[in-house]
Amino acid sequence: MLSSSSSSSSSSELSFDFYAASCPSVEFMVKNTVRAATSADPSVPGKLLRLLFHDCFVEGCDASVLIEGGGTERSDPANASLGAFSVIDSAKRVLEIFCPGVVSCADVLALAARDAVELTGGPRIPIPMGRRDGRVSAASNVRTNIIDTNFSLDQMVKIFSSKGLSLDDLVILSGAHTIGSAHCGAFSDRFKEDSQGNLTLIDSSLDKDYAFQLTKQCPAGASPSITVKNDPQTPLVFDNNYFKVLLAHKGLFHSDSVLVSNGRSMNRVVEFANDQARFFEGWGQSFLRLSSVGVKTGGEGEVRQTCSATN
């Protein structure tokens, strides 16, 4: 499926046997790291998936989001709630022992996000490797390239299209919200509660009973560190329940709810809600396209020694 016209032209330079000679155990080592981290903290898979999205949508899938320092992508407030950086760092440290200077942080991140899906019950997806790490990481590139939780369908389609991704990819990849969690501030503008406990829906696309439950989980004045599961029923399992949640008008974000406000995307939501195998098949294809967005290959970029800093 890499020959899809919506894939980056560089993606054709990625290869399924890229590390066959130079680091044949790379996938085993990354998966073991992700498995151990997930056992210790079940929130890790959702964080790894989100980390890949935020990386690939800014400068392409080049691990630029991992670089620390003032003015970097990672320093932008829109990326303040990203996590699981330590998981990537751990995997990279192991790889540097066995295959020093060989495996890019961009490939580690793509593999880790892929494994996060499989380890939570989703499909196993073979993905090609050979991504190089970017040397540019600027906070100024973040806001114009990532999806905000209050976006309309048209706003999301525009950004996805700029990455060579289709409306189908948008609906399928939104299914990442079947795992993971969100801070209250990401959706609290969809409703308000007065001092008597009366609820007013600001976003009428949200189920009122669900909104009422959310006010109990995110009361006024609550700590900004409180999080809510994206999928209220099977939050730790990668399945098609996210699409069933959307049909019940219980999508946590406005950007979730808009997927059922439009016939173009609604048909796909219904299809995936009714057929998990179809969602998994679509996920495999869309994830391949996502993890190939704007990749650097060959002589571009570098292979970082440490993921949080350029060489």
Please provide a written account of the structure.
- This protein is mostly helical and 311 residues long.
- It has a domain at 176-283: Peroxidase, domain 2 (Orthogonal Bundle).
- 40% of the residues lie in helices and 4% in strands.
- It is built from 11 helices and 4 strands, in the order ααααααβββαβαααα.
- The protein has helices at 26-40, 44-56, 85-98, 105-119, 153-162, 167-174, 208-217, 241-247, 254-257, 263-274, 276-290, and strands at residues 181-183, 191-193, 199-201, 227-229.
- The chain has a two-stranded antiparallel ribbon with strand order 1-4.
- α6 (167-174) packs across α11 (276-290).
- It is globular and about 65 Å long.
- The two termini are 33 Å apart.
- Mean pLDDT is 93; it is low at 1-9.
